[in-house]
Description:
The structure is a homodimer of 338-residue chains.
Chain A: E1 23-31, H1 34-42, E2 56-63, E3 75-78, E4 81-82, H2 88-91, E5 102-103, E6 115-118, H3 121-124, E7 126-127, H4 137-141, H5 146-156, E8 164-168, H6 172-183, E9 188-192, H7 196-205, E10 209-211, H8 215-225, E11 231-236, H9 241-249, E12 251-259, E13 280-283, H10 288-300, E14 312-314, H11 319-327, E15 334-336
Parallel strand pairs in A: 8-9, 8-11, 9-10, 11-12, 12-13, 14-15
Antiparallel strand pairs in A: 1-2, 1-6, 1-15, 2-3, 3-7, 4-5
Helix pairs in contact in A: 5-6, 5-10, 6-7, 8-9
Amino acid sequence: MFGAGDVQVREVPDARLDRPTDALLRVTHAAICGSDLWRYQKLAPTPDGIRLGHEFLGVVEETGAEVTSVRPGDLVLAPFKWSDGSCEFCRAGLHSSCLHGGFWGGALDGGQGERVRVPQADGTLVPLPMEPDDPRVPAVLALADVLCTGHHAALSARVGPDSTVAVIGDGAVGLCAVLAAARLGASRIVVLGRHPRRTDLARRFGAVEVVPERGPAAVERVKELTGGHGADAVLECVGTGAALRDALDMTRPGGAVGYVGVPQDGEGVDVRRFYRRNITLSGGVTPARAYIPELLPDVLSGRLDAAAIFDRTVGLDGVPDGYKAMAAREALKVLIRP
Amino acid sequence: MFGAGDVQVREVPDARLDRPTDALLRVTHAAICGSDLWRYQKLAPTPDGIRLGHEFLGVVEETGAEVTSVRPGDLVLAPFKWSDGSCEFCRAGLHSSCLHGGFWGGALDGGQGERVRVPQADGTLVPLPMEPDDPRVPAVLALADVLCTGHHAALSARVGPDSTVAVIGDGAVGLCAVLAAARLGASRIVVLGRHPRRTDLARRFGAVEVVPERGPAAVERVKELTGGHGADAVLECVGTGAALRDALDMTRPGGAVGYVGVPQDGEGVDVRRFYRRNITLSGGVTPARAYIPELLPDVLSGRLDAAAIFDRTVGLDGVPDGYKAMAAREALKVLIRP
């Protein structure tokens, strides 16, 4: 990406092993993320470009001398941050704060390409018991980010059996949050969104009500739908101050907001807004690597199937159009087959 | 109180039963709260005055026809909000959000006086197995607000065995938060304050380090004292935006801030400040009535003894001077014997 709206497919030097803990991955499936769109809308001109793609899986081609958990030929999933799996934060299940990890892209390779050098391969990659042409691959790819992120929103908001849940946002993360909340036993899920194709999918995933309003009208409507005092758990899957304020306002006293939308504005949240009601605000960058082993069996069994969020498939040459389609909301989420 | 700095002792009509669920209480012990001081500093002139006092205990003199849990002659403790004990929020342990409860003062009686009409007496009052002259009474009085509030901060910040804890504020609530964190098994408690008499008490209550700095210097110092990444649990017991920002900055990734200071300014908290670190922000108005039955046995046994926060005792006539002394920080917390 060379600036807002400017995605190009370029030849770059081949990815290659650099450290003994690296693995080299041939990407078979990748995706465009809603969070990529924020940059697509506002990235300043960047002559050298930035590498894109943090949701991908593929086949290991080569491993460094110290890599023991994956071998050439393995199909593996990469979460949206790499991590060593052994530092104090990884051991605590907070791989997103790994002391020796980082985000894809930047100076490193991105997953929207042919090959990626994977640092800390043992800590990062998850072997998959399947072939690249397995029909379950798109559902598995969702675990790289959006499905784990929806799960993180649900856990952060303490969704459990019998929770009433409101999910703000009908993008891929919001839809995955609906799926995750349903899996955790929520008794009633309301989704806030206004794109019928997406809210229809939310219903398929477990939502029983759709609220197209925003602001105070949305807050009132959610209260009506959840017994009068608000939802036990509100999952904020947008990332704006306005959405976060709505989330806090529609939470039942004693309830919790799980926020996973990457905050896009510096709009403050006034604590006085929720002090009287004892609302808990929790969330942040998802430790996807921690959740994959727990969620993968349910994905493989078909119990947790987010594949329907992918409504368009492109090759590498189609990536620029993929961005355009997602930015115009013509596509919900684009699958890339390099 | 008739305005900032203007507290007067006035004769008012005798409190009397109004509803069958009321009890009439003769106050034997009351206190001045740090939260009363905010109004003492900025209340606009109020010709009719407002009644003060939300921490008190005393002897039941009379009960309405429907009251069953207390009888005339009982010594009882009143938490800082009254509540019915039976609504959906009380049943969930969130008495601070009782659908039929409220704060003392305002149009109702306040506890800094001779007698109080207690609404919802069955839900509100806690009988005490002691006489008014029992030396443990001041320790029990702390349960009306500050000790439960410190406990709420600690629970909200998820303090447990082996937690590292930072407590922001060396007022009565901060000191009680130290005590509560120690009771919950914290492995290391750091208190942030700069009043030696108070921080000495914090050490007696369980703090092992005192940090007089504020802002970034305090954040750095707490990180140094808690393994480099911040405290697992930070208890915000001040109520300003500056203190809350410090709290969020000094929390370890994956940790939690428990905030109980009544928010005094509208300064927003930018979520971007803690999104990357997965900090949980939790707290609010303490459901004191929910905690009293759990904490009272430890108070009676002497295991949880906050009595030392009371460093001055006055009669009703001494209340105006009590406010003055607390505002000037000459007294930490004033006990009133009407």
